[in-house]
Specification:
It is found in: Endoplasmic reticulum membrane; Microsome membrane. GO terms for molecular function: arachidonate epoxygenase activity; heme binding; iron ion binding; oxidoreductase activity, acting on paired donors, with incorporation or reduction of molecular oxygen, reduced flavin or flavoprotein as one donor, and incorporation of one atom of oxygen. One of its GO terms (cellular component) is endoplasmic reticulum membrane. By secondary structure, the protein is of the alpha+beta class. Helix content is about 50%, strand content about 10%. It has 18 helices and eleven strands. Strand 1 and strand 2 form a beta hairpin. Helix 9 runs antiparallel to helix 12. The N terminus is likely disordered.
Length: about 500
């Protein structure tokens, strides 16, 4: 009901403005697209199922590059593998700007490594990559952390004794603990009340950010921000997480040993101290809080959501899960935990994980970009500051690169000899200069958690495979898998 009321307000306001304004004018020479109305933009041509459905429908009519008016502002939409690569790789620097996401902008306001721009972004990204590498990314120590966390998970799953479970709790806990160990220098017990509260806040925020109401807010944020809605709950949730981070930073200050930094926060505090006399330094308290929030949120939600989709797919396609079981038994056996080196000897399992990422399509419309200067692209002129949406879903479902893009089929990533093959359309972490900071750690987590669970357990559901629905619960900035129940049954080996 709330959404309908807000939409009615928007429509009435737009009709009033129609009398006073002509068609929206864009600078430069933007690609063609559906004809907008003043204030309303292309609202009336949008699919009621959300932005992604709308963009894919417009692609069929206008091609891989077109302009859509989200409310009064023009946004250039880029679809398809070749066009996205031309922008984000071939012209990586000019397409490296970050545009806002309206429902989270009141919290981040251009701070932190994910939403910063210019020199602030470059400095924070260099620092974050180097620091995360020092604390495990790219080194064996992160593998050891994940292996240890995976064994903690095995203990929890054994306690379930094959009862039906909601997998959200388990997958959130393990992925959050890995990023917590790097950012905060500690892991949490799965029953820690503070930890459970943080996970609840992150999960609810991700669902709300991906909701239809948040997509409508993206069109009319300057107007809708004055009314109640999911944007206010997102703000409240993320500010509560920021409060936890702020308290953690203060504890770090009190116990900091400059000769032995323990984690990301310690390293950042040392950098702040080093740069304190430099007025141009980007290393201040606000950027620390927002960078920690970005790493914590992204590091938890992305991998845990992919695992949730992955095990739903194993329930849907038990013959695929059985082939993974056989490969695990052949390569790893039951006497030792999986290790990252095993991946090279397990092409089928590796292809299954790739296909889970492709099919899950976690960030379907991509995190929005912005061009950093006037830019020529495919015969058009995009003025500096133009927002650009690279529709990652259109690459992950590109029929020119995947034989049956709407089907779940690990053969998409296997060549004729059964080896894993590279595919240019595979970009679940995006590509170019804004590629996900945590790609390396996420790929390690997915392999080790996925194989450790299937080494020890079979999965089952009371729902017949043919009746399992894979339709996302929400599909906006993120794809949120449907809720489901799963049984983890200890494997019986002969």
């Amino acid at each position: 009901m709330e959404l309908s009321v807000l939409l009615l307000f928007a429509l009435l306001t737009g009709l009033l403005i129609l009398l006073a304004r002509g068609r929206p004018k864009a600078r430069g020479h933007l690609p063609p697209g559906p004809r907008p109305l003043p204030f309303l933009g292309n609202l009336l041509q949008m699919d009621r199922k959300g932005l992604l459905k709308s963009f894919l429908r417009f692609q069929q009519k206008y091609g891989d590059v077109f302009t859509v008016y989200l409310g009064p502002r023009p946004v250039v939409i880029i679809c398809g593998t070749e066009a996205i690569r031309e922008a984000l790789v071939d012209q990586a620097e000019v397409f490296s700007g970050r545009a806002k996401i309206a429902v989270v902008d009141p919290v981040v306001q251009g701070h932190g490594v994910v939403f910063a721009n210019g020199e602030r972004w470059k400095a924070l990204r260099r620092f974050s990559l180097a620091t995360m590498r020092d604390f495990g990314m790219g080194k064996r120590s992160v593998e050891e952390r994940i292996q240890e966390e995976a064994q903690c998970l095995m203990e929890e799953l054994r306690k379930s004794q094959g009862a039906l479970q909601d997998p959200v709790f388990y997958f959130h806990s393990i992925t959050a603990n890995i990023i917590c160990s790097i950012v905060f220098g500690k892991r949490f017990d799965y029953r820690d009340p503070q930890f459970l509260r943080l996970l609840e806040l992150l999960f609810k925020s991700f669902v709300l950010i991906s909701s239809l109401s948040s997509q409508l807010f993206e069109l009319y944020s300057s107007f809708l921000k004055h009314f109640p809605g999911s944007h206010r709950q997102i703000y409240k949730n993320l500010q509560e997480v920021n409060g936890f981070i702020d308290r953690s930073v203060e504890k770090h200050r009190e116990t900091l040993d400059p000769s032995a930094p323990r984690d990301f926060i310690d390293c950042y505090l040392l950098r702040m101290e080093k740069d304190k006399s430099d007025p141009r330094s980007q290393f201040d308290h606000r950027n620390l809080i927002m960078s920690a929030l970005s790493l914590f949120f992204a590091g938890t939600e992305t991998t845990s959501t992919t695992l949730r989709y992955g095990f739903l797919l194993m329930l849907k396609y038990p013959h695929i899960a059985e082939r993974v079981h056989k490969e695990i038994d052949r390569v790893i056996g039951s006497d030792r935990p999986p290790a990252l080196d095993d991946r090279a000897q397990m092409p089928y399992t590796d292809a299954v994980i790739h296909e889970i990422q492709r099919f899950a399509d976690l960030i379907p419309i991509g995190v929005p970009h912005m061009v950093t200067k006037d830019t020529h692209f495919r015969g058009y002129i995009l003025p500096k500051g133009t927002e650009v949406y690279p529709i990652l879903s259109s690459a992950l479902h590109d029929s020119r690169y995947f034989e049956k893009p709407d089907d779940f089929n690990p053969d998409h990533f296997l060549d004729a000899s059964g080896a894993v093959k590279k595919n240019d359309a595979f970009m679940p972490f995006s590509i170019g200069k804004r590629i996900c900071l945590g790609e390396g750690i996420a790929r390690t987590e997915l392999f080790l958690f996925f194989t450790t669970i299937l080494q020890n357990f079979s999965v089952a559901s009371p729902v017949a495979p043919e009746d399992i629905d894979l339709t996302p619960q929400e599909s906006g900035v993120g794809n949120v898998p449907p809720k489901y129940q799963i049984q983890f049954l200890p494997r019986q080996r002969g």
